[in-house]
Amino acid sequence: MKKYLIILLTLLICSYTRAQSTVAKFKYEDAEKAFYNGDYQSCISLLDETEKLLGKSAPNILYLRILAESKILEVDPYTKYEQIEKLRSLCSQYLQNYDIAGLEGKYRDVYELSGKLPKAANQTQLTQLGEAEHAKQLERIIAENNLVFVEGGTFMMGEKKGTHQVSLSDFYICKYEVTVAQYHAFCDATGRSMPQEPSWGWSDIYPVVNINHHDAVDYCQWLSETKGGNWRLPTEAEWEYAARGGKHSRGYTYSGGNRRKEVAWHNGNSKVRTHFMAHPVGKRKPNELGIYDMSGNAEEWCHDWYREDYYTNSPDKNPKGPNSGSGRVVRGGNWRYSTAECKVSYRYSRIPETTEYYSDIRGFRVVFSQ
Predict the structure, then answer these.
(1) What 3-state class would DSSP assign to 155?
(2) How far apart are CA 130 and CA 121, in angstroms?
(3) Rounded Cα–Cα distance for residues 47 and 53 (Å)
(4) Whole-angstrom Cα distance, residue 258 to residue 248?
(5) Of 101, 169, 229, 367, most Cβ neighbours within 10 A?
């Protein structure tokens, strides 16, 4: 009788163990799904449950845990010293125990990930490392994208009856209008088509034109995704402040001077043989901040919806325009129009979706903030 009880107990234990193993398998599969859905914290919790059911870890469990922990740290690795050290310990555990045939690829992944972890003795050192790395990244972004720093300040926006005081925070703005070459890179990377070619053809150093507002916003979003940081169209206030020269403004009528032919391509000087046309960026005199073509060449989309009376009730700090409207603000004038539109204070609007109505006059430039 005792013999049969032992056999029965053994069978029950085996059955329970198999059931535990099956549930653990399901938990691990759920952890994988959570990882590929970007829910890294849930992935880690499910791996904890898997290990508890099995009573041990395993190469695949530890590998997935390392990947999930590293994804969580990607957001801001320099603020989480304890998590960095925890991940370093997990990598060390994997490298010490799983240098075996069949796992070479995963072993290499963990080895490379471990080597990229920042090394610091404490949180203070880690924070300092982060600040230094952030400064290097910002320097690289500024150099690669011809960004100009615009120190925040207070200025009188608009002209005549519309003049009002506005205060802005710091921002960076591109020295040049977005060029054909830059926009072409965006189209190649995203699989979209270039806009309609203007009559003078495409040339890399010309401003890209025939751009509607949605095209410009999509380009900014692509920059944010590929380069990091916040890339966007300038607000109307930021655009005018930068065009006026920011804190270095000398009060010019046009961006960079009062002699329009020196600073702007417009209908008085943009003719080549028998055709008026845009010109390569950066060929006129820059303004006080070293920014080119904010008067003339291609008119530029801004972030804001347009409302004629907006100045009467706009916020005095970092205004972003009305909440809605039928047109978006366009600034700067262009190669086809007179110099009146090239004044730094002149404002008008276009329908966001339009790629018609002389859209070969319309381009944009971008702003970067951290």
Answers:
(1) strand
(2) 13
(3) 10
(4) 15
(5) 367
SS3 state of residue 357? coil
Dihedral angle, C-alpha 286, 352, 218, 202, nearest 10 °: -60
CATH assignment of 2-123, given 1.25.40, 1.20.120, 3.90.25, 3.40.50? 1.25.40
- What ranges do the domains of the chain cover? 2-123, 146-369
pLDDT in tens, 183-235: 999 999 999 999 999 988 889 999 999 999 999 999 999 999 999 899 999 99
| Residue 2 half-sphere exposure toward CB, CA atoms < 13 A | 0
How confident is the model over 69-102, as pLDDT tens digits? 999 988 788 888 899 999 999 999 999 999 988 8
Which phi-psi region, left, alpha or beta, contains residue 245 (left: φ > 0; alpha: ψ -120 to 50)?
Answer: left
Contacts of 353 (CB under 8 A, 6+ apart): 212, 213, 214
Q: Domain spanning 146-369: which CATH class is it, in words?
A: alpha beta
Half-sphere exposure of 245 (CA within 13 A, CB side): 14
As a whole number of angstroms, the distance between CA 87 and CA 89 comes to 5
Are the CB atoms for 176 and 144 separated by under 8 Å?
A: no
Q: How many CB atoms lie within 10 A of CB 266?
A: 24
